[in-house]
Design a protein that fits this description.
Layout lengths: L2 H38 L2 E6 L8 E6 H74 L4 H5 L9 H4 L8 H38 L12 E4 L2 E4 L6 E4 L2 E4 L6 E3 L4 E9 L3 E7 L4 E11 L6 E2 L4 E5 L10 E7 L2 E3 L12
Antiparallel strand pairs: 1-2, 3-6, 4-5, 6-13, 7-12, 8-9, 8-11, 9-10, 10-12, 10-13, 13-14
Helix pairs in contact: 2-5
């Protein structure tokens, strides 16, 4: 036998085996489905027998219908449980959202109340600022004219129509208030510059208390008084400051130059300071003096201490203010209410 014939014979045998195997596999699959169909097509009879002498009910079905019915029942039950759980979870989330919504509404009401209070305070601020600017001679009409639409004036807030409601109105109010406050910055800066320019003037006028001890009080005011020693009426030409003790510091009430440091039988140790604008201040009955003649002092600088020198009934400071040759009431220049 030649080698070629031998190979062809092997090839035919292999092809035959493959064909036979494939046919056997198809027959096996066919037989499986036939048996499965027979199983599912098996007839079943379900009998319902009542306890009473009623008629017996016979229900005929097959395995396929029974399995299909069981699968449908299980699927429906599973779907019901799943969607019921989802519904419970959704209800919980809805309740949480409702609770958060109530809290948000409460916060919004509180915010609206605060917004109303803010607008009322802004209205008072506007009136006070306008009055202050009028007294200082500053005109802010030019600032208002820059916002001719009225957005920079609080009048646009307080005359707003009631038809605007809700958060839109609150937002519009706050925006108008912000614009107004931004416009108010310039006149306030002008006031600050004016005060800065006038700060030197305030320091040149004797307008502070010469004694700042916590115990200080006015023991005798300017004008007609009974003399504490003679008991006779006389004109007291100054204000007496007492702390019920000796040694408390005395301060210069304005910038100036010391022109006199001396002793007098009536005033005891005393100092006279010359200020600008023709003003002088005298500090008498001091225990010690801490400045020299010709020295320049600043407002608030310590120049001596309260004493009991000269004609006194106890330690105190006798303080006078002179304009030229006239003696004036110091309380007119001290920016506080004097009391006995």
């Amino acid at each position: 036998m030649s080698r070629t014939q031998k190979y062809k014979k092997i090839e035919k045998r292999f092809a035959s085996n493959v064909h036979n195997g494939f046919v056997s596999f198809l027959k096996a699959i066919k037989n499986f489905f036939v048996r499965l169909f027979k199983i599912f097509d098996s007839k079943l009879t379900i009998m319902i027998v009542p306890h009473s002498q009623g008629k017996v009910i016979n229900l005929q079905t097959n395995v396929f219908a029974l399995v299909l019915g069981a699968v449908l029942i299980v699927g429906i039950a599973t779907s019901f449980l799943y969607f019921n759980r989802r519904a419970v979870t959704s209800n919980i989330e809805i309740n949480n959202l409702l609770s958060q919504n109530r809290e948000t509404l409460a916060s919004l009401d509180e915010l609206r109340d605060e917004n109303t209070n803010l607008l009322q305070a802004a209205k008072r601020f506007q009136a006070s600022l306008s009055q202050s600017l009028s007294l200082l001679g500053l005109d802010r009409s030019s600032n208002v004219s820059k916002n001719s639409s009225g957005s920079g004036d609080l009048s646009s807030i307080f005359s707003s129509k009631d038809s605007v409601s809700g958060s839109v109105k609150e937002t519009a109010d706050i925006r108008s208030l912000t614009t107004y406050l931004e416009d108010a910055v310039q006149p306030i800066e002008q006031i600050g510059k004016m005060l800065e320019n006038q700060s030197s003037l305030f320091k040149e006028i004797p307008n502070i208390w010469p004694v700042t001890s916590p115990n200080v009080h006015i023991s005798m005011m300017f004008g007609p008084n009974l003399h504490p020693i003679t008991g006779q009426w006389y004109i007291h030409k100054g204000v007496d400051f007492s702390t019920w003790r000796q040694g408390d510091p005395i301060m210069a009430t304005a910038n100036g130059q010391v022109v006199t440091v001396g002793y007098d039988a009536s005033f005891g140790n005393y100092i006279i300071i010359r200020h600008k604008h023709g003003m002088y201040t005298r500090y008498a009955h001091m225990s010690v003096t801490r400045v020299k003649k010709g020295e320049y002092v600043n407002q608030g600088q310590i120049i001596g201490n309260i004493g009991n020198t000269g004609v006194t009934t106890g330690p105190h400071l006798h303080y006078e203010v002179h304009i030229g040759s006239d003696v004036v009431d110091p309380s007119k220049y001290i920016n506080v209410k004097l009391s006995k």
